[in-house]
Amino acid sequence: MTDTDHPTAKVVFRVANDDGSFEVETLWAYDLGDDRYKIDNLPFYAYSVSVDDVVYAPADPDDGRPTFQKVLTKSGNRTVRVVFDLPIELGNRSDEVLKGLVALGCSCEGANSKYIAVNIPPVIELNAVRDYLIKCDAQWEHADPTYAELYPTDA
Q1: Rounded to an integer, what distance in angstroms lies between the CA atom of residue 74 and that of residue 56?
Q2: Do 67 and 14 form a contact (C-beta atoms < 8 A)?
Q3: Could you report the per-residue pLDDT of 10-43, keeping only the tens digit for each?
Q4: What's the sign of the alpha-carbon dihedral 31, 36, 42, 45?
Q5: Span between the terminal Cα atoms of the chain, in Å
């Protein structure tokens, strides 16, 4: 790792849309050398990657930015994403759901006041978080692992 406590690289993830086009998300990462990067923030759009995963991301030949190719080492963290009907405000239903996730041991990052990515650490059971979100009637998705990775015959 570098001599800094802060990530210094942005890794590019190209996320396919249903129409074949791509969106771009960049994630902060630590440059480990040899085109390897340790992801340092939660993905809001990329799938099958979580915070602390080590990825292979060689420089794009056109723009020189490190561009995701594959995960080399899984951290054990998992990611789900939640979309709220109401913006998160102190004491409202969205805030209560968020506080419940934190109470379960998760951490969260918000893309905005209605859309969050949730990190589920390795020591927390995915089923506990999933059951909680279902109980709360929350709108959410599996991001890492994806639903298709968890249930390949259902996808």
Answers
A1: 12
A2: yes
A3: 999 999 888 989 999 999 999 999 999 999 999 9
A4: positive
A5: 38
In which residue ranges of the chain is CATH 3.30.70.2030 found?
Answer: 78-150
Question: Which region, left, alpha or beta, applies to residue 95 given φ > 0 means left and ψ of -120 to 50 means alpha?
Answer: alpha
78: tokens are 């998992």
Closest of 102, 111, 96, 95 to residue 143, by C-alpha: 111
78-150: CATH architecture: 2-Layer Sandwich (3.30)
- Burial status of residue 126 (CB atoms within 10 A of its CB: 0-12, 13-18, 19 or more): middle
Which one-letter DSSP state was computed for residue 20? Answer: S
Place of tokens 């996320």: 15
Taking the C-alpha atoms of residue 2 and residue 90, their distance in angstroms, rounded to an integer, is 38
